[in-house]
TrEMBL record:
Domain of life: Eukaryota
Encoding gene, per UniProt annotation: ppsA
PANTHER family named in the record: FATTY ACID SYNTHASE, SI:DKEY-61P9.11
Organism of this sequence: Symbiodinium natans
Domain Ketosynthase family 3 (KS3): 186-619
Keywords: Phosphopantetheine, Phosphoprotein, Transferase
GO biological process, one term: fatty acid biosynthetic process
Matches recorded under PROSITE patterns: KS3_2 (PS52004)
Keyword Lipid biosynthesis assigned: no
Molecular function in Gene Ontology: fatty acid synthase activity
SUPFAM superfamilies cross-referenced by the UniProt entry: Thiolase-like
InterPro entries recorded: Ketoacyl_synth_C (IPR014031), Ketoacyl_synth_N (IPR014030), PKS_Beta-ketoAc_synthase_dom (IPR020841), PKS_NRPS_Biosynth_Enz (IPR050091), Thiolase-like (IPR016039)
Name this protein carries in UniProt: PpsA protein
Annotated family: Belongs to the thiolase-like superfamily. Beta-ketoacyl-ACP synthases family.
Record bears the keyword Cytoplasm: no
Length: 919
């Protein structure tokens, strides 16, 4: 099968698509077609769905021992069925996108065939609306069957699906996955807008795109923040010194923390001076997010928009700043006032909460904001909710304490999942997501609404009594992962990617990865389909504590929209405590494609006090920002040019009364000649190849230029579809068939591949020569085949030319001069002797340019190889006209005699020479 597939590979351009893969081989035993067909099962539909959608070519090898029957028919109701009898050893290559087929045997003796399909895999990534253009009728029928079956599965689903229900019966697991990705039976929360101030950028999507490129925003603490050398000591025991020091000198910082438009929010300059920069950024970023979601200040007044701010102890009170804070100093740095000030400045009357769960604060705020907009059947709900996280590095005072606690990494990076993980580096960030409830039932949603992403559910729990208040708890993390799946209405196997907390702590990372594997992939097969990808945003920018959950969520929204899973930076050697042999886990070191068009991605956060939060995001690739593969345009899509069994009717306009005629370049397109009726819908004409060793032609019905048959392309090869009859003036320019007798040889290296663990040797290049190669005088039989409504034109060598060059001659060629002195109108040259032609012309003042054309045909132009050439220049042609001319300078009244010489040797090659003289 591989050898046959390799032989097809070089012809991908000619067959009109790119073969991206090959299916596995199948062994079939043929049966009597009269036997009752077995009912299609879910597993069979699942196994064949992708193949039916993307298959393009069938390779079938008949194994025997008996004979069989292959029945074929185009996807055309008018086409007749064609049957061939197969014998052992017969190989059939068939276009499945053009023909339906059925193989069976009529005798008692069974027969077997081996099959494989050449696939165009990028079809599977197309949007459903565009995918339908590639679906053949059998694929459409199977797709509709699966679609109906998915609806039935979702209707049978209990309110709280379990793994036991998933495994119940014969329903394939991927059917459960597809049903969960297509129809929801519960509410979802849509993110209408998102804004953030993160290291390096203020634009969330730019932040994500940087992550795809492996950006690393961590730098040494800049002098504009504080003099870090006063607290830095590289020794491992720096925190034990007096005064305590830190052995970490790196962090990520947000630009513009000192900038603020106080007038936008109606705040006085005096109040602004005493405000924590974090509070100022929360005001700006939250209004930015609301603005992106379509809200304005006048629409926010008296709205029920809720503010849920993930914040903690502010370093503003420990920062080096001016002392004139005035009467606003008490509230300027109070975390509890952040949410209240936000509601006050924007006039919102929804809930206003400050949530402090350390590094889980931001994601906790989003969780409770999503809960607040959910419709629970009683009372009024909040129209909108804002989930907010804020963390700034404003003082050096707490760095020694964090070093003593083992939080900070001396290496200056977050080495999440790596063997060198020793902690995290701090990072700044402020982020806001605007949430609104959206009911999505049976695949319906409001396409007009602004949407950054969708949250389908989540859960939050505390570790309770564990090894330590700051120690991660594996069972607690597993419990919150499973609970989040239950509340989202999906199974644990539906989760494709997890954006981990991944703070770079050696043991904590191993516990989190193991918890994801056991909770989401326990008992799953270790194969590509069940692989769970783990990634962490902290390897790019560090740990922005209260904002880390928000930043991970925003990154996840854009990751889903772009269909890309970001890599983990600084991952060189896997943490030895990570056992990935028992669970199908993957920590990518390079960006990768999402494995499905629509995915569920989990986002996790963990707080120092034991708080675990996990949310599920859902969505597919946004086709406005990342265009999916387009279906092949209709005009370029391969068409069945001829079906020998026929079917249908051409109509009265296409039936000749006087017969078919042929007209071509050998006569200068001036003398149509009749074609002979060979019977059975075939008409023929014998062509004598001219001295150019190629000819072009068209066909006429009843010798009428208003009934031209043509191939709808330039220099069409044999076997192409016949179009028409069409009026000559309406025929596409240069729509002709092309008989090429010139020699050529092309080498193409076949596709190499591997079958299992055995490497296939690189094959020798395939050499192709011109089967129509012939010298001048060679005879070709041109045939027009008609079967029902199907028509095609073919040709083949009739016989070898008699001995001696040009023993058989076609019409004598004529040559014409066309120049700038007469606006390139043809002037016929006179034959002075055999192979010599002359013409006298009157020139105009200045430069005069000219070319020569055989038979007055610009497709048989003769010109120099260099522009503006003299008589000694090398000559090219007869071929299609190019912008190269001979140049003669003249005065008014000058005349020019042009002499053209052309001789043809025994090999069929020609020698040409152009001379001229003024008189």
């Amino acid at each position: 099968m591989w050898k046959l597939a390799e032989a097809i590979g070089p012809f991908q351009d000619e067959i009109g698509f790119r073969c991206c893969g090959r299916s596995v081989g199948f062994l079939h035993q043929a049966s009597d077609p009269d036997l009752e067909e077995a009912e299609l099962t879910d597993q069979e539909a699942s196994d064949w769905s992708a193949i039916f959608t993307s298959r393009k070519i069938l390779i079938m090898v008949c194994l025997g021992p008996g004979k069989g029957t292959l029945e074929m028919q185009p996807y055309d109701d008018e086409a007749n069925v064609s049957e061939i009898t197969t014998v052992p050893g017969l190989v059939v290559v068939l276009r499945t996108d053009q023909l339906s087929f059925k193989f069976f045997c009529r005798g008692r003796e069974a027969t077997h065939v081996a099959t494989s399909f050449m696939l165009q895999n990028d079809i599977l990534r197309m949007h459903r609306n565009k995918l339908e253009a590639h679906l053949t009728p059998p694929a459409q029928e199977l797709d509709q069957w699966i679609d109906q079956r998915l609806r039935e599965i979702k209707e049978m689903e209990p309110d709280e699906p379990t793994e036991e229900w998933t495994a119940k019966g014969d329903v394939p697991r991927n059917f459960i996955h597809a049903a969960n990705r297509t129809w929801f039976k519960r509410q979802t929360t849509v993110c209408k807008g998102a804004a953030a101030r993160l290291p390096v950028t203020w634009e969330p999507e730019v932040f994500f795109l940087g992550c795809t490129a492996g950006c690393d925003t961590v730098i040494e603490v800049p002098i504009m923040r504080w003099e870090h050398d006063t607290v830095y000591d590289p020794s491992p025991d720096a925190w034990k010194k007096d005064p305590p020091m830190t052995n970490c000198r790196h962090a990520s910082f947000v630009d513009g923390v000192d900038l603020f438009d106080n007038k936008l929010f109606g705040l006085s300059l005096a109040e602004t001076k005493g405000m924590d920069p974090g509070q100022r950024l929360v005001l700006e970023v939250t209004y930015d997010a609301l603005y992106r979601s379509g809200m304005r200040k006048n629409t926010l007044i008296n709205s029920t928009c809720g503010m849920y701010v993930g914040t903690s102890f502010s370093e503003w009170n420990s920062a080096e700043k001016a002392a004139d804070v005035g009467i606003f100093g008490a509230t300027g740095g109070a975390p509890s006032i952040t949410a209240g000030r936000l509601s006050f400045c924007l006039g919102c009357k929804g809930a206003s909460l400050a949530i402090d769960t350390e590094a889980a604060s931001g994601l906790s705020a989003v969780f409770w904001a999503a809960e607040a907009v959910e419709k629970k059947g009683a009372g009024h709900i909040q129209e909108l909710s804002c989930g907010i996280g804020v963390h700034l590095c404003l003082a050096k005072a707490w760095w020694p304490a964090h070093t003593a606690a083992g939080f900070l990494c001396p290496g200056g990076r977050c080495f999440t999942f790596d063997a060198s993980a020793q902690g995290h580096v701090r990072s700044e960030g402020v982020g806001t997501v605007v949430l609104r409830c959206q009911e999505k039932m049976d695949g319906q949603e409001d396409k007009e609404e602004l949407s950054v992403g969708t949250i389908v559910g989540g859960a939050t729990q505390n570790s309770g009594k564990s090894a330590g208040m700051s120690a991660p708890s594996g069972p607690a993390e597993q419990a919150v992962l499973v609970e989040a799946c239950r509340k989202s209405g999906i199974t644990t196997l539906d989760v494709d990617v997890v954006e981990c907390h991944g703070s770079g702590r050696f043991i904590a990372d191993a516990i989190e990865a193991a918890s994801c594997g056991r909770a989401l992939r326990e008992g799953a097969d270790s194969n590509e389909e069940e692989m769970l990808q783990l990634c962490s945003m902290k390897t790019n920018i560090g740990n922005c504590i209260e904002t880390s959950g928000i930043a991970s969520l925003i990154k996840t929204f854009h990751s889903i929209r772009w269909g890309i899973v970001c890599a983990n930076n600084h991952l060189h050697q896997l943490n030895p405590h990570l056992d990935i042999s028992s669970c199908p886990l993957l920590m990518c070191t390079e960006p990768s494609e999402q494995k499905l068009s629509a995915v569920f991605v989990g986002v996790s956060s963990w707080g120092f006090g034991g708080t675990n939060v996990h949310l599920h995001c859902y969505g597919g690739v946004d086709e406005e920002i990342r265009l999916p593969p387009e279906p092949t345009p209709q005009e370029l899509r391969p068409r069945l040019s001829y079906w020998p069994s026929g079917g249908g009717d051409l109509g009265s306009m296409s039936r000749p009364r006087r017969g078919f005629f042929i007209i071509g370049s050998w006569s200068g397109w001036t003398e149509p000649e009749p074609m002979e009726d060979e019977g059975d819908g075939c008409y023929g004409y014998t062509l004598v190849l001219g001295d150019t060793r190629w000819e072009q032609f068209q066909l006429l019905i009843d010798n009428s230029y208003s009934k031209v048959l043509h191939p709808q392309r330039y220099k069409a090869p044999k076997g192409t579809e016949v179009f028409g009859p069409t009026r000559q003036e309406e025929v596409m320019q240069d729509s002709t068939w092309f008989v090429d007798g010139r020699p050529f040889s092309t080498q193409i290296r076949a596709i190499t591949a591997s079958a299992g663990s055995t490497a296939v040797a690189t094959p020798e290049p395939l050499t192709f020569t011109n089967e129509d190669e012939g010298l001048p005088g060679q005879l070709y039989r041109i045939r027009l085949h008609i079967a029902g409504k199907w028509r095609t034109v073919t040709w083949a060598k009739a016989k070898e030319a008699p001995q001696g060059l040009l023993a058989l001659k076609g019409p004598e060629a004529k040559y014409y001069v066309a120049g700038s002195w007469n606006n390139y109108r043809f002037e016929e040259m006179t034959a002075a002797s055999e192979g010599t032609y002359t013409c006298e012309v009157s020139l105009t003042s200045g430069p005069n340019r000219f070319q020569i054309a055989r038979n007055g045909d610009w497709h048989q132009a003769i010109f120099p190889v260099s522009p503006n050439a003299g008589p000694t220049a090398e000559i090219e042609g007869p071929i299609d006209r190019k912008d190269r001319h001979w140049l003669v300078s003249a005065s008014t009244g000058d005349k020019l005699k042009i002499t053209f010489q052309r001789t043809i040797d025994a090999s069929g090659s020609s020698k040409m020479k152009v001379l001229w003289e003024k008189f």
